[in-house]
Amino acid sequence: MYEFVIMVIVLPIVITSVFLGKLLFHDFLLAQNLGWAAYLMAAIVYCVQEYFVLKLSLETIGYVYFQYAIAVSVFFLGKKWFGHMLLVLSPLLLAIFFYVNDLVSLAQVDRCLIEMFLLFGCCLLLKRYLHSQIGLGVAMILMTSFTPLIECGLYGINFDTDLMTLSLLCLGTSVLMCLEFAYHNYSLHQQKKYAAIEYSSRHDKLTGLLNYAAFSEQLENFKLEKNTPVVICALDLDSFKQVNDTYGHLEGNNVLRYFGNFLTTSCSKYFGENSKIYRFGGEEFCVIIYGFSAKQCLKRFNKIEKELEKSSFTTGYKQMINLSFSGGISQVKKYTDLHSAVRRADVSLYSAKAEGRAHVCLDPLLFS
Known about the structure:
This protein is of the alpha+beta class. It has helices at about 1-30, 35-60, 70-75, 80-100, 110-130, 130-155, 165-200, 210-220, 240-245, 250-270, 295-310, 340-355; strands at about 230-235, 275-280, 285-290, 315, 320, 325-330, 360. A hairpin with a 5-residue loop joins strand 4 and strand 5. Helix 6 packs antiparallel against helix 7.
């Protein structure tokens, strides 16, 4: 009963707690932007935790079990390079533990390199060809079955156990995997949930484009890179109120979706991945373009406008609506900040509307 409690309940719970704490501590260190010092601190803490687990197992059962459980778990379910580091550290730490507890001689410690190679190679192969959870399960089974035998051959440690001990070890491994899989699945669910919330907070629900909150964030974090022109284009669908009044707000929403998709396709066509499209609200849109001059953007947006005029929108009642937009363009490098360029693009947009709509105007101050 004593062995059952230790191997099936106590050790799996302790190892799972250390595993979860290790992941959280690692994330905390990386968030501090400490560079290599974060990995050094994580390695030191891991050595202390692992020594405690090894000592607990040796003192309570008489032999070391689950010696690679934390390292393998982090490798399959945690961070890539962090898992690699723990796989390298674990055999060395185990050999030192054996030496400190008078289980092996100092001359035998270097044999941990063989076990390190076997452990690292086995885990890499399993992760390459198997799903992370399946790979972890197979790795745990292999460790449960063969690690004591390998250590017996390498270090000459007598490993005398019976079928009951092996059965308890397998059962404890199963409990450990269930606990870690439960956490892993919960963590994935939370990540998807937070990702959905983050996406929703930065994207317009109607068009799927970036929203004004995302644009405001861009304004706060904007840094102009040397020799990289940044152009702002403010856009406004022409006579959109008339569309709502004539066809209703539901069709008006469909028009906005259509224009959002059209704008996304057109910007991808003319600017590749060098543009970001925002919907400010209503029929107001804004595009930030990187790596193109203001004159290049003027020419291309006027092409886009003409293409929109040729591709009429069809309502749910098969009615055709001809669309157009007006726009204003300014360039960031002419001004000290992005805010000024946005204001100048708005002024140019109003000029385009005053001149009869359906075209894009360039900020005249760019040439003053």
